[in-house]
Amino acid sequence: MFPIFKAKTYGSITVGERGQVVIPANLRKEFNIVPGDQLMVFAKPDKKIIAIISTRELSLLLERAEKAITKLGTKFHKK
Fold first, then answer.
1. What whole-number distance in Å separates Cα of residue 77 and Cα of residue 71?
2. What's the CATH code of the domain at 33?
3. Domain residues for 33?
4. Which residue numbers in the chain have pLDDT < 50?
5. What is the total count of domains within the chain?
6. Could you write out the DSSP letters of every residue in 4-63?
7. What is the pTM of this model?
């Protein structure tokens, strides 16, 4: 099964005249999104999918990836 079908639904949003959307309150609360937070928006145009991630979570993800890559590189160079 595709991972997107395992996603949790938080409600619907409406796009305003200026292209703005409001993130549902229950989603903001669960993800601790507060005014002033920066979010990154990614899209997969061919599948019409939009994804949003906070810049702080993206930074943490990239830090973990960097550590994992460094660890793999160290193991690789030891051989």
1. 10
2. 2.10.260.10
3. 3-78
4. 1
5. 1
6. GGGPPP-------TTS-----HHHHHHTT--TT--EEEEEEGGGTEEEEEEHHHHHHHHH
7. 0.64
